Each structure stands twice: as C-alpha cells, then as structure tokens.
Amino acid sequence: MYELLKTNYQEILNALFETLQMMTIAVVIGMVLGLVIGILITVTAKGHLSENNVVNTILQTIVNITRSIPFILLAIILIPFTRFVVGRAYGTIAGSVPLTIIAIALFARFTEQALKEVSINIIKSAEAMGASKLQIVFHFMLKEARSSLVLGFTSAIISIISYSTAMGILGGGGIGDFAIYHGYNMNNFKLMFLVIIIMVIIVQIIQLIGNSLANKLNKKKR
Fold it and tell me: Which letter does DSSP use for residue 180 in this model?
C-alpha cells in the first residue's frame, strides 16, 4: 500500500482536488438554498408560522422527487441542463451541477427535520414576546436546532462525497473517476482499495468534526 501511495500520490492528490472542487460548489450552494427551502417547508406547514398549503406541497414534492431518483439517473437526466449552465456535460465543474441539485434537496430535508424538533412552546413564547416571524426563525428556531442542523448537514456532506465518486462514471473526474479507471478498469484492485481507504478516512474525519461541533453547540444550548 505504501509503494502504491508513493507511486500514485500525485494522481491521487489531483483526483482529490477535483473532488474538492465539486464538493465545495455543491456544499456551499446546497447549504444556502437548502437551508432556505427547509425553513420555508417548515414555516408553511399546517399550523405553523406562515401556513401555506400550496407552497408547502410544491416544495415538498420537488424535494421528494429529487431525492427519490437514483443519483446516476438524475445526473443523466440533468445533462441538457448541465450543458446549458456550464457549456458542456463533462468535467469537474459540470459534475458539480447534479451534485448541487441533490445537495439542495438533502440540506432542505435535514433542515426541515431539525426545525421540526424545536418545541412549539419556544415558538409560542417568542410570539408572546412580540418577536416577528423572521426573528422567531433566526433567533429562536435555528438557534434551538443548531446542534441537530450540524449533525444533519454532516450527514448530507458525507452523502454528497459518496455521490461525487459516482460522477467518475459520467466523466466528472475526481477520486471516483480515478478509482474506476486506474483501479478497476486496469485490474489494479490494490490501488482501488487504497482509494477506498483514503475516502473512509476522510469521511471519518468529517463525521468526527461534525459530532464534536454538535456536542459543543448542544452544551452551549444547555
């Protein structure tokens, strides 16, 4: 394994950098838009701050459909859209387009789940104090759900890493592409397993960071 790493470290670093590019675009955009959509789904639900069945149903349907389509098929379906956005349907930047779409859906669902854990008594107390709807969302709901949000977002990021490796099949580059073409296709299974070990280590580090941050936020909340 050491010899494999020594021989291929530059190619592995390049592949990891491509994955990082795809991940950064998908996570940043997905986190922002997903948070907004998740908040809207929560506050427009029946009996909540801004009940609106039409908006809630539309957003819920979009998120559910996006998450229900297998990622490879979703990426294929989005090829025309990807080509329209970035001018081509292959490469690292093109690979970030379907990743961003699924990231938005994941972050939206995890945001909704976290906000639903907030006690209704906290919301009622905020309303009794005369807080506006925006103040309730940002100063009470999000603050109360921050630990759950971190854990949910950590799970979302790990899922996106998994999806990013699949982009190699569609010419998206990255560590998945490297493992498939330099490992599996070349019958170099030791190299493929080396890449898997590297990805497992990366995922474990992200999970540990997420758990640690969530625990710290949870202690502050108490």
Answer: I
Q: Cα–Cα distance between 97 and 78 in angstroms, integer?
A: 8
Fill in the DSSP letter of residue 169. Answer: G
- What is the block-wise mean pLDDT of the chain (222 residues), using blocks of 10 residues? 73 87 91 95 88 93 92 88 83 86 94 89 85 87 90 92 79 78 78 86 93 82 56
Alpha-carbon gap, residue 34 to 62, rounded angstroms: 12
- Give the 3-state secondary structure of residue 187: coil
What's the number of domains the chain is made of? Answer: 1
Q: For residue 89, give the DSSP letter.
A: S
Structural domain span for residue 63: 2-221
Nearest Cα neighbor of 103 from 124, 74, 61 is: 74
Phi, then psi, of 132 in degrees rounded to 5: -75, 170
Contact assessment for residue 3 and residue 194, using Cβ atoms and an 8 Å cutoff: no
| Cα angle value 30/32/34 (rounded, 5°) | 55
Residue closest to 142 by CA, chosen among 173, 116, 175 = 116
- CA dist 160 and 162 (Å) reads 5
